[in-house]
Amino acid sequence: MPELTAERPSATLSEEALLEMYWYMLLSRRTDERAWVMHRQGKIPFHISAIGHEATQVAAAYAINRGVDYVHPYYRDLTLVMAIGVTPFDFMMSLYGKKGELSSGARQMPSHFGAKHLNIISGSSPVATQVPQAAGLAFAIKYRLSQGLQSPDDTSQPRLALTCLGEGSTSQGEWHEGMNWAGVHNLPFICLVQNNFYAISVPLEGQMAVSSVADRAAAYGVHGISVDGTDVLAVYDAMKEAADRAYSGEGATLVEARCYRMTPHSSDDDDRTYRSREEVEEWKKKDPLVLFQKRLLKEGVLTKKLIEEYEAKAKAEVDDAQQRAEAAPWPKPEEALGDVFAPLEEA
Ligand SMILES: Cc1ncc(C[n+]2csc(CCOP(=O)(O)OP(=O)(O)O)c2C)c(N)n1
Ligand SMILES: [Mg+2]
């Protein structure tokens, strides 16, 4: 792991911020694990996991202005959205599809994260469609600034648009269109590609003829960075560089964070059919939560006692979230089309 040195932005992270980042990684992991249990108990129909991606996502959240910058996430971004303010209860409500669920009022599948009050934009299921939408958002930010217009929800402070996707989704046409737009217009835009080496069962080499997604950035006139996605501080440094470029008008950045999906693609997938157990076990040695815990223990930021306290607190929060979501009412069937079509005008 890189050392904390004065030259690196991560060196300026306070102990409080480091502990918060650890907390969100832990809370996300325990929420995620519970969702797998709930699925296997037949309580929920579907789950898609962030396990293995927590370092990348918490670092991304802390490098931007959380809740102010616009974030257009993808289905694997549980840790990212939790670090911005989505709660275990919000997530559990979406797993069940209960009435009033935050992302879409229970009209979307779970993990199609959206939260208006946090500037998190809900996406569609076709992968990479969020990229041109996020680039369009970045264009709007730049345009409003150039016209002296204020952002709808406040000030003239610099903002950016961040979007995320997996490496497999960079084969999709929308990704290229969005990246090109961001490069041509020099937008305050970050595309974070979470390269976990698989798109469901298709390995990286089946998606691209170059070994690093970041190599593709140059083709769009975008700055490209590749980073170890299991290392919180390394991702923070990369994302901070990208955010500073966006805020200062230097333009768009593509950050590739290399990590590993430690679970099957989703609750509908059996990964034993396409990757060896040895490979999975090898990557588990780079579990980002364990690595960060060790790092913070070594630095004296975290203690054994604090770890136990955080574990107990996370368990209590997840238990409470599950119980409240289970007890919450379902939406009425006739509510399904509400907020989808405008009401018919009376003749
Ligand atoms: C346009 C489109 N094609 C196929 C799918 C089915 N699909 C859902 S996720 C996925 C894999 C994406 O892999 P990657 O982009 O590497 O992200 P990861 O799931 O590994 O994080 C596929 C093929 C889809 N949702 N949309
Ligand atoms: Mg992938």
The tally of domains stands at: 1
Secondary-structure arrangement, i.e. CATH architecture:
3-Layer(aba) Sandwich
Helix content: 40-55%
DSSP strand count = 7
Distance between the first and last residues' Cα: 68 Å
Q: What do we call the CATH homologous superfamily? A: Thiamin diphosphate (ThDP)-binding fold, Pyr/PP domains
What Rg is obtained from the alpha carbons, in whole angstroms?
20 Å
The third-level CATH topology is Rossmann fold
Task: List the ions, cofactors and other small molecules found in this model.
Answer: thiamine diphosphate, magnesium ion
The helix-and-strand class reads alpha/beta
β-sheet strand percentage: 5-15%
Biggest sheet details? 5 strands, parallel
N-to-C SSE string, H for helix and E for strand = HHEHHHEHEEEEHEHHH
Number of helices: 10
Low-confidence stretches are none
General shape: globular
Strand order of the largest sheet: 1-2-3-7-6
CATH class wording: Alpha Beta
Topology of this structure?
Layout: H1 15-40, H2 54-63, E1 70-72, H3 78-84, H4 88-96, H5 130-146, E2 161-166, H6 173-184, E3 189-195, E4 198-199, E5 202-203, E6 223-228, H7 232-247, E7 253-258, H8 277-284, H9 288-298, H10 304-327
Parallel strand pairs: 1-2, 2-3, 3-7, 6-7
Antiparallel strand pairs: 4-5
This protein binds thiamine diphosphate and magnesium ion.
